[in-house]
Amino acid sequence: MIIVVLMAFLLAVYASLDDAFKTGDPLAELLNDLTIAISFSALLPMWWVNWSSRQRLQNLFNEFAAIEDDFFYPYRHLLADCTTYDNYLLWKGLASLLQNLSFLNSASTVETPSILLIIFMCLLTILTNVVLLVATHFYLVVLHTYRLIWALNRRLEAIAADNIMPRLCQRRHLLSVEIDTMASIYARLISLCERYTRMHQLHLLLVIGSVTACNIEVLFYVRLLWSGKIPERTAFNVFAVFQIFVVNLLDFWLTITICELALVESRKTSAILRGFSAKPKLTLNVERSLECFAIICSSTKLRFHICGLFDINHLTGLKVLSTMILYLIYLVQYYHDNL
Predict the structure, then answer these.
(1) SS3 breakdown of the chain: % helix, strand, coil, rounded to 5?
(2) Is the Cβ–Cβ distance between 252 and 82 less than 8 Å?
(3) Mean pLDDT in consecutive groups of 10 residues from the start of the chain, 339 residues
(4) H-helix or E-strand containing 311?
(5) Residue 339 to residues 32, 224, 225, 237, 326, Cα–Cα distance (Å)
(6) DSSP-assigned letters across all residues of 167-207
(7) What is d(CA 131, CA 227) in angstroms, rounded to the nearest whole number?
């Protein structure tokens, strides 16, 4: 209810603003109106999905913690060695900080901001952080999945590198049980990611659409500034607007990249299992466990499928970027006489 009231207040404030950035260009104002409409229409369903799924989200993170405690406790050093996990956590924190700073920087480009504009920017920043928090949940789930699959692969490689297979019957049995446990954990990780993707596929689609619309608007606005159509703007104004595009692109590409890392790491599991076929003197129980693991890998693929439309990976990220550039070209060609 609070979100609905806040959105209604923001729309009322926005409607009362009179060309706050003084572009004086009707197409730029139309793009701005469309971007605001898309962003606001995306906020309510995103908030509702996150609120209604909060218990399932908590259970999901509890399952990740249980997997880490149950199996990976003896292999804590493997989890600690995954420096990519730490690096991408820091990058995500930096991207969130830059997102908030970009709002302040955008407000600073207005020479004499009104009280309504200040209120509008502050409340819009609050709602944007709600969206960023929801998007961060998906990012953390994928990042946890990547780290756990990475640790599984390192453990499989350590087993495959041991040329002396255990001779004691008890040790052979323990190795077979460990491989079965790893196969079960791998299947659980794939299932957890599929569940979360289904839970938040709508808001992911809305986020991608909002980011695409915002970046197209920003690039077109930079083109207006660069053309000299707004003579009172300086090079700093061009940079202040263009940095919004850079920050949005950084945050968007981090999500794309971590999904690609998880996909690549899951494919490495099958390659490591194929390496066991060249090892001699494998016991029957170990061979059966490895075969079951290979069947799970071949039949259960990691995917981040959004609303039956596309998968989140590097190819999709490149398509979204090309869409931004193409729509900018269309707008410039259509509006060339006024630039």
Answers:
(1) 85, 0, 15
(2) no
(3) 54 49 57 66 68 77 83 81 90 85 63 63 71 79 91 86 52 75 88 84 79 77 65 61 80 90 91 76 78 86 85 88 82 64
(4) strand 310-311
(5) 18, 7, 10, 18, 18
(6) -SHHHHHHHHHHHHHHHHHHHHHHHHHHHHHHHSHHHHHHH
(7) 33
